[in-house]
Write a structure and sequence with these properties.
It comes from Tenuifilum thalassicum. Pfam families: Trypsin_2. This is Trypsin-like peptidase domain-containing protein. By secondary structure, the protein is of the alpha+beta class. It has two domains: about 210 residues, Thrombin, subunit H; about 55 residues. It has five helices and 13 strands. A seven-stranded antiparallel beta sheet has the order 5-4-1-2-3-7-6. A six-stranded antiparallel beta barrel has the order 8-9-10-13-12-11. The radius of gyration is 21 Å and the shape is globular.
C-alpha cells in the first residue's frame, strides 16, 4: 500500500529551503504541487532573515533533483503568494507556473468532510537539513477545532522539523486530506515562548554588562554566554527531535480555491464519535 503511495505521489512533493544573505540555510519546509500551485504551511510567510528560497522536487530515488528553482524570498512572498498572509488558517498557497515545474505531477485534494478515527495515512516530507524525501505511515488518532474554527486532525506518526507543510495522504484514494502543521503544536509554542524569554534575559543582562567585575571577570558576560548556550541547545532539540503525535490542518479553507464547484460533505452525527466531524463554530 505504501509503496503505491510513494510511486504515485512522491514526485509531487518538494522541499522548500530558505537561505539568509550569506547563503546559510535558516529554515526548511515541505510543500506539494496542486495544479500550478505550491501548497505548504503558513510559516512560509514569516521566515526570519530569509533572502532566497529554493523549491526542489526529487525523483523516485528520493534524492536526485527532478526540478529546482531559486527565487528572491521577497518576490516569493509578495508576487507569488495566493491570498492573504495572515489568513489564520495555517496554510500558504503560491503560484509556481514556471516551465521548470511543467513535468511535475499534481496531487489531488480530498473533498470529504469527515474521516474515520483509526484511518491509515501516509505522510511525505523532508526532514530538517536533509536532502532526501521520506514516507511515514500512521493513523488518524483524533480531531479538534481551534478558537478560529479551523479544523485539525491529530495524526499518530513521527513528525520532524522540516515536515511542516507535508501532505497527509489517504492510501486508499491517493488524495491529500490535510497539511502537516508542526509549527503550531504545543511543542512549537513552548519553544517560541522559551526563545522570547531568552531574548528578554539577554537584553536585560546587556544593560548592566561591564559595570562590575569579580577577579577581572565580568559575571554578566558569563550569564549571557549561558543564555546563548541554552538557546543553542533548545534550537537543536527542536530541530532534531521528532514528535509522535502531531496535528494537520484540514482542507476546508482551500478546497474551493482549487475547485470552485466543490461542496464539502455536511457534518453528520456518527455513533460513538467514530467519524471526525468537528463543525465550525457560529460567531
Amino acid at each position: 500500500m505504501y509503496r503505491k503511495v510513494w510511486n504515485q505521489c512522491s514526485q509531487s512533493v518538494c522541499c522548500i529551503n530558505f537561505y539568509n544573505e550569506h547563503g546559510i540555510l535558516v529554515d526548511a519546509l515541505t510543500g506539494f504541487k496542486i495544479n500550478k500551485s505550491l501548497v505548504t504551511c503558513e510559516q512560509a510567510f514569516y521566515v526570519k532573515d530569509a533572502r532566497k528560497v529554493e523549491i526542489k522536487f526529487v525523483e523516485l530515488d528520493a534524492n536526485t533533483p527532478k526540478a529546482v528553482l531559486r527565487l528572491d524570498y521577497q518576490e516569493f512572498v509578495d508576487d507569488l503568494r495566493v491570498g492573504f498572509t495572515h489568513n489564520n488558517s495555517d496554510y500558504a498557497v503560491f503560484n509556481i507556473d514556471f516551465p521548470e515545474f511543467d513535468s511535475i505531477p499534481s496531487l489531488s485534494l480530498c473533498e470529504r468532510w469527515s474521516y474515520p478515527i483509526g484511518m491509515d495515512i501516509a505522510v511525505l516530507g523532508f526532514n530538517s537539513q536533509e536532502h532526501n524525501l521520506s514516507i511515514k505511515k500512521g493513523i488518524v488518532s483524533s480531531a479538534f477545532a481551534n478558537k478560529n474554527g479551523v479544523r485539525y486532525l491529530n495524526i499518530d506518526t513521527l513528525i520532524c522539523h522540516g515536515n511542516s507543510g507535508a501532505p497527509v495522504i489517504d492510501p486508499e484514494t491517493m488524495q491529500v486530506i490535510a497539511i502537516v502543521s508542526r509549527r503550531s503544536n504545543p511543542v512549537a509554542k513552548s519553544y517560541n515562548d522559551l526563545m522570547r524569554y531568552i531574548k528578554t534575559n539577554i537584553e536585560e543582562l546587556r544593560k548592566i554588562e561591564g559595570k562590575f567585575f569579580v577577579d577581572d571577570i565580568d559575571p554578566i558576560q558569563v550569564l549571557i554566554a549561558n543564555q546563548n548556550q541554552i538557546k543553542l541547545l533548545a534550537q537543536n532539540m527542536f530541530k532534531y527531535t521528532a514528535t509522535g503525535l502531531s496535528q494537520a490542518v484540514m482542507l476546508d479553507h482551500i478546497i474551493t480555491y482549487f475547485n470552485e464547484k466543490a461542496i464539502l460533505e455536511q457534518p453528520r452525527t456518527s455513533g460513538l464519535g467514530v467519524e471526525v466531524n468537528i463543525g465550525l463554530k457560529n460567531e
